[in-house]
Fold this protein.
Amino acid sequence: MKITKTHLDGVVIIEPAVFGDHRGWFMETYSHTKFEEAGITLKFVQDNQSFSATKGTLRGLHYQLNPKAQAKLVRCTKGSIFDVAVDIRQGSPSYGQWFGIELTAENKKQLLIPQGFAHGFMTLTDDVEVQYKVDELYAPECDRGIIWNDPSIGIEWPMNIKPVLSDKDKNAPQLKDADNNFIFGEE
């Protein structure tokens, strides 16, 4: 398992070792022991899966407020996505900065997004499945979002199209107006 740090503290790319032969392949997508050895001490409590039928579907930018904040381990198991993490920890040196990566069923990369970050993705193909682990259960009372095209964040989404959005995501506030109780250094 290869773990690569990004410019956002705590956001890491995880590349599982893939073992293949004439039958196909095998990979270990998560190992508590290997994560701990790499300094990642999360305890995942729920697995989620989404399906998006149409290329250009955009989900996000989502997060849960404290005390129900969620870290996520995201992977794409069918198709391709552009996955994004945005630092929303007030006082952070990288507040409002984003990191994006293409996750595909073929490259098998995963993105670890810590608490205090908003998360979103855009599908780059039709018929996309995304699976992710979280370290806190879903809490609708803490569920929040930031508009996907907030100019203060400036995410460079890979497709210059009008995305397919939920009503919730269409009406999300900008970062400056969003409910946010994340304070850098209090994670």
The radius of gyration is 16 Å.
